[in-house]
Amino acid sequence: MKLTTGPEFGESLLSRRNRHQFLATFVVNISTFAHGIGIGWLSPVMRALQTPGSPLSFEVLVEEVSWIGSLLGIGSVVGNLLAGLLQDRIGRKPVILALTVPYVCFWLLSYFAQSVEYLYLARLLAGVTGGAGYIVLPIFISEISDAKIRGRLSSMVMLSVNMGILTGYILSTNVDYYVAPIFVLPLPVCYFISNLFLPETPFHLIKKGKFGAAEKSFRYYKNISDDDKSSMLEFEEMKLKLTKERALSVNAFNYKDFLTRPALKAYSMAILLIFTNQFTGTFCFASYMSDVFTLSHTTLDIGICTIIIGVVQIVGTYTTTLLCDRFGRKILLLISCLGCGICLAAFGSFTYFAERYDLSSVGWMPLLLLSLDVFLCNIGLVGVLFVVLVELMPGKIRSVAVSGCIILLSSTVFLSLKIFPVSMEYWGISITMWSCSLVAFVGFILILCFLKETKGKSMLDH
């Protein structure tokens, strides 16, 4: 990642002020990297489980594969609910540490699988890890980071996931089914130990009335020495505002806070972004990549195509980290939606004509179009989704509202993963891709008309 920046950024990620924020973001994202490995590893494996050379001793049917794929969404909802209920009660850090448990169980169940039910439960637990992480990590990162670098740090969540997905693709195509868990299981151990040394966020500690611990946390994440009194004005301002908010919330925090005009506007935009994110099909491509390329009439090796797409995902989310704080969130979302719409329409058209004419001379076209689609989707709809969801919500209800949004996201993950293979089977890949393209174009128009830029918004703003 480019750690030095131009004047408009103010500071590099490794400047004295920012280096602890960057380090903490890197450490907590070991979880998202590991989660991505599980997603990427299982994608080609699910196709292998349906062949005579399956690494498992039992048969896995096509309908069972669709359940293995989609149970990730149900697990995500469970993880969302658990993290949403616990993060304000016990803190962000304990929830972050707890992500280790379902992740370890996912690999153990996959390794010792004796029936398809083992894989169902494994995939469900993988969803719990991802769902809880998508709730607590964006909030944790936003609460420890300065506004000037918040976009870059928050977008690292999806960058880490996509790096993990690529690693999972490579593992599944080059390493035996029973060897992969041995490579991966040390990750959660490193993750747990590393996170033990991170302080809780100052936001949460202030809300709990632990002002001494909050000051120490603030000094750590802003890298302020104990004898530097002048730099603590920002902490005192934050403490004053959050303390007043805490005092008022005892009597005033009720359903009316969720029905204010700013809150309702934030919900509508969040719902738009979530549905556009899921039903343009990008996450489905990551889970069913081998099937998509099999139906695309490509003349290239499917395994190589899958790995190339994994690389493109990383390039896309990495690009987000470079551009998010420079140009803002809205322009990236607009470019993402418009580009995805065009690429998906072209992909659907190619597969339509490839079924009727010999297009083997341009058999590389599906890889090119899907690579462009994945890149463009990752620079906006994927890369800045969690950044914008956190920044859209009013401060007083942010934690609960973001949790609700991620629950909706997880529900649409389940729905999209369940219907995507069914759509390809009954409608065909061309109509499926054209439908995803239509979603992207509608998202472009609505974002252009109604979304306000959130770049530079203070986390204390309402």
UniProtKB/TrEMBL annotation:
Residues 24-455 form the Major facilitator superfamily (MFS) profile domain. Pfam families: Sugar_tr (PF00083). It is a multi-pass membrane protein. The chain crosses the membrane at residues 22-45, 65-83, 95-114, 120-141, 153-171, 177-198, 266-288, 300-324, 331-352, 364-388, 400-420, 426-451. SUPFAM superfamilies: MFS general substrate transporter. The keyword Membrane applies. GO terms for cellular component: plasma membrane. This is Major facilitator superfamily (MFS) profile domain-containing protein. It comes from Drosophila navojoa (Fruit fly).
